[in-house]
Amino acid sequence: MPEDHTHESAKIEDLYLSDFQRNNPQCKFSIDENKFIIEQAWLVDDVRFVFDPKEVELLRDINNIAFRPRFDAIFHVDLNEVEFLYTYLKPDEEPARSYIDRCFTFNLLGDTLECCFKEPSSRLFELAKRIRWLPSTPSIGGTVARQFPAFRDAQRLESLPERAKQYFAERVPRSFFVKTQKPLLDCDWELLSRHINFHMRYYDRRTPVIEVRCENEPKKVEAFSERRFLADSFPTAMAAHEIDDFILQLMETAATASPRFAFIYYYQVIEYAGFYFVDEKSKKQIRQFLTDPAMVMCPEDKVSELLTVLSDLQRSDDVRISRVIEDYCDPSIVWREIENDRVFFSSPVEFEGGYQLSALIAGDTSVDTWQTMWMPKTIQQLTKIRNCLVHGRERRQSQVILPTRTNTKLVERYVPVIRRIAEQIALAKVS
Question: Helix (H, G, I), strand (E, B), or coil: what is residue 338?
């Protein structure tokens, strides 16, 4: 007779964890060596909870909790409060003594939140007993749930060395609880946490705050290799002149800064030159006019030239910046950086936060075409990025460039271009 599969055993998660599955759709479940395993609580592969399938009452109780990948926290759904994991503290030492039992109410957006540092929940200690890190984890705790080892070790003192026993004997455990009046899982906890953090720091510079992790993985941005040599090889001889010291310091700082700060420092070089280089060039031209013997006759062409120079001194910052780039930069040198990352620059770029830039070049743009069209489009795009980084939003747009890892990688692609422009300006001999 054919084998009957109509009465297969129900899965443990379906028997005991129906609410948990609904509140934690990111989690995965498995059985390994007669142990029930919950994975992906924080959307990482190297942390898991391991239960004995016979722990029925405990499994039923965790129906009342939820995890969220951006927080090291336990969301107690039945109690309508979040427990943010913290640590063990010496109760008589500052700064811990000032906040170890701190409680306060926080009113925001029509909700009254009850916030308090207090003894961790029994659920936290039960989960701490059962958390495991895979051997591939670079360090215990990895990048998530780093607080759990202390809460686990405090429950097995007999197996710890004397030094560790003394550590726990001098300290008390604390979590930070936030209780809301609104349904717990309907709240925007990133928004609430950032507001709570801001106000706690405002009143106490040494307060612990809620860690809000960035996205676990930035969106994929194609890898690129920065061009190494300006020309085909390193020159065997160079003739140099003294570079403006302020520009030199900006360039040195930018060379080792993160992409966002590097971009801003290189842009400062262009801004600085746009103001001082244009002024110096105009002053030099005015001196030449004043020492020209023929100027006493006020010839029409000389007067027109003088008026042009004086007009340059009155131009806006944007015009000055464009002018200094056009005067001192060779577009064929900038092109080498563009061509090195042609696929990126021939596609539109959308930043997290909604800000968008059109493609800088077409797919078939050549160096000859580039030299006819590179300005003012290049500086316009660089200025828009700079405005978003410095001012939060581009002055004429409602979209922003959020401070995310994905956006940092996108900004990094523009750094070789603005650096090459800043370098050429730095090398310019103005006087």
Answer: helix
